[in-house]
Structure formats: C-alpha cells, structure tokens
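Curious: can you check?
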Amino acid sequence: MANEKAERLDSLGRLAGGIAHDFNNLLGVILNYASFVVEEATSPQPDLAAIADDARQVVRAGERGKDLTTKLLAFARREVVRPRVVDFNEVITGLEATLHEVIGDRITLTVRPGPGVPPVTCDPGQIEQMVTKLAANARDAMPDGGELVIDTAYQRISEGHPELDPGDYVRLRVGDSGTGMPPEVAERAFEPFYSTRPERTGLGLATVYGVAGQAGGIVTLTSEPGVGTTVTVLLPVGSSEQADPLTSAPPTTNGHGETLLVVDDEAGLRDVAGRILAGAGYRVLSADGGRQALELAALHEGDIDLLVSDVVMPGMLGNELAERLTDIRPGTRVLFMSGYAQPVLASQGTLDPGVALLEKPFTAGDLLSAVRKRLDG
C-alpha cells in the first residue's frame, strides 16, 4: 500500500512538474513579448510593424497554452465533449491531407478504411486530435523515413473481455515501421510528460488514452525494438441513425442590435467579451456575477435576447442564474462559457441536451459564431 501511494505521488509530481515547466515557458514568452509591445508602443516614434510582430508572438504562445489545457482535460477525461453520430471512416479519410503535412515526405502513409464500419457516437474533433497525435508520435519514431498504416474495421467483443462490455466496436489501428520500444518503455508510454528523449516533454500518448476513455473505449499498444509500434483503439458503435455530415455552412456573426447580458466574475475577460460583441453590432449589458445580473435584468426595460454567462462563479453558479433569469424572462436564450464546466453542466463528461457551451479560452470569431448560432436557434 505504501509503495502504491508513493508511486501515485511520484506520478502526480511528474505531472505537476511537467505542466509547470511548459506553462512557465509559455508565460516567459507572453510576459516578455508583451513588455516589448508596451515599450515600443510608448516610444516617441512607435514602429507599428515591430509591435504587430511582437503581438503575434503573444498570440502564438497563448494558442499553445490553450492546446496544452485542452490536452490536459482530455487526459483527465474532464473535457466536455459534443458527441454525435458520425461516419468513422469519413473522419479518418478526411484527415489524410493533414496527416501528410504532419509526417512529411520521407514517410509513406497508407489509409485503409475497412468495409462495413458502422457509425460511431463521438466528438469528431477529439478523434482527429487523437489520430494526429498518433501520426506525430510515429513520425518521431521514423527519423529516416518509413511506413505509417492507418486502418479501420468492425470488431465484435464477446463475453469475458477484461475491460470492455460485450458488443459492437470500431477498431482503429495505427502502425509504424519505426524504431519500436523496449517493454519497460512501452509500459509507460501513456504516462503524461514521460519521454525517453530529454528534449521532448508534454502529454504525449496520454492524450490518446484520455480521448479513448472518454469515448467509452480503450487503447492498447504493442511494440518491438527495430520492428515498429502499433496502437489499437476500440470505440463502441453508435446508434443506427444516419451519420451526420462533417461540414456545414459557416454561420454569419454580425449582430443586429440584439441585447446581450454578459456575466463573468473575471473583469478582464468580461471586458474583452463586451468589446468584441459591441464592435459586432450588439448592445451589451455587463455584470460581475449572478446577483448583479438579476438586478440589471430587473431594471432593463427592453428585451434581453441572450444571456452569455460563465459557469463557475462565486455566490451563484451560471446554471442557477440561467434558471432564475429565464423564469422572469422566458424569451431569453442562454449561452454558457467555461474552461471546465463538468460536473455543473455535464453528465459523465458529455454535454447535456439543450446546453450551449463556449469553451474558454475563445477567440473573437469563436464568441461571435457561438452567439449568432444561439440567437438563430
């Protein structure tokens, strides 16, 4: 028991240390380039081109931080997913162009969608993230080139499987002809921030493990030094409904004078959201929490078309605010925003029906698209 506790604490320490390492690097970039922007902007003759270049570095670092947070939530199975019935083969074949860019010209890619593969209920974005990560991992194992084969198939699981219930599954298999791993490395391949390369850090295959688990499946790995590595993912088959298409027309984002009530206890983020929305043609009311939001709603004489609210706030959670506001203003629609909405808005990590959620951090385009989509029903 003591050894197991020590191992858990050691794993937690590695995870915390890895996160701190990566975020400290990102914060170093953000703080220093932001100071360059301020220094140049306040100089007697500011160089706008230099300011723009430095600002782009801040944006890039912020995007990397967002990506790291997404992977952490996926690993912890705490990312709120948006599952729908999709054609699994279509998801995989639609990634081919991206995968060619990831692995480069020295590696031959073969994608073999199996016949009769049934639809899967999943978040296609998570599946794309998982396959792209596996391809990148395979690329690193083939520095001199090689072969990467991705195939799909239907598989029936009978009674007695140690990890899965009996039923129908879709099998995804990603195999490479790379250097392979010795048994002691393969056993730890899914650990976060574990790598045999000192210069490589990050969540690695831990992200794949988290995505598969949250989708109700499992992931296994077989590897042999000098032969290669094969990663196998089994995901439960979805309903018999027709799979949804993966493409849709991009929504319009401009406002038409609609009134939005924006609620967030973080003043900076509340101001950013208000600035974006007002600039797009919306009328914005801002509140720092549920109590102030209800007071504003009581005083406002016109309609409030949309409540845009953070989920976790002191004093009153976003879902309680939404319930109380829609009781007195039934015509008000609701859009939640959060970086971590489970368990307030989600059951088993899956967004509950009827809940609209904008994930933090978001861009101006993300916010405007989500608002317009919610207003248009």
Summary: The chain has three domains: 2-75, 84-236, 259-375. Residues 84-236 form a domain with the Heat Shock Protein 90 fold (CATH 3.30.565.10). The two ends are 54 Å apart (CA to CA). The first helix runs from residue 2 to 41.
